[in-house]
Amino acid sequence: MKNNSEANNNNDNSNGVGNNNLVVTLEEPKENYLDLVMLALSTEGYFFLNEETSSFLKSMKTQFLGRKWINGCVSFKNAIKNGSVPEMPELGKPIDGFTPPKLPPVHALEGLIGECGVPFEQQLTETDMNKHRARLLIAQELVEKFVMPLMSEEEKQSLKCGQEIQVTACGSNGIEYQMKFKCWGSNKHVLTLGWNEFRIDNEFKALQDWVTMWVFRHKRTGKLCFGMIARRFPTNQLIRSQKKKKGKEMNK
């Protein structure tokens, strides 16, 4: 960060740059950016960013966005470690009660997300991690509530006819994976094709990882997309929602 000497020598401040203004450049080491921005914000003038600096700071903002949610509730993690599992939230809600950000906190997706649905969460199972099955099963209730509202009538009809839909999935690393979304039988909705590669690259773990999913339309292509980020909890068993447990008790 440095004083804008040209602006200081210019008496015309119509461009918003004056004696008290700072220009942020990439001359400083990136690890000093937070201190530099705090300094800039503490001044009474304006500060300006070149394109590269602006892009880097946006990535930092994305990195910190939702950090509390990503780290998860400590008291909840401790409760699981101690052997007690608190009452589970409604199906699709975060396991620890924290609210995820409205958009996936992935820098590579900034400016590319069009219409976006409400994020939902589900626990990864042993079969989701099975390389031979090569699919992620999404509960029917979750598909109906969170995925279907983002689908076109043509796509819904394709699923009913047993056809697959080409979709794109993106994880926290910003890498895009081409997958297929389809329905097996009458009510088993799955993501296939690139799922094995996706789960391996993201180092997912069965039972311990709870994946939050955002279903959205790509702003440029209009394609149906899935943003997926996992949060890890010390769970070593399959935890069912209270809704399903109550249903099982009623059927006994």
Automatic annotation (TrEMBL):
Domain of life according to the entry: Eukaryota
Subcellular location(s) per record: Nucleus
Listed GO CC annotations: nucleus
Predominant cellular place of this UniProt entry's protein: nucleus
Keywords: DNA-binding, Nucleus, Transcription, Transcription regulation
Stretches the record annotates as Disordered: 1-20
GO molecular function: DNA binding
InterPro entries the UniProt entry points to: At2g31720-like, DNA-bd_pseudobarrel_sf
Name of this protein: B3 domain-containing protein
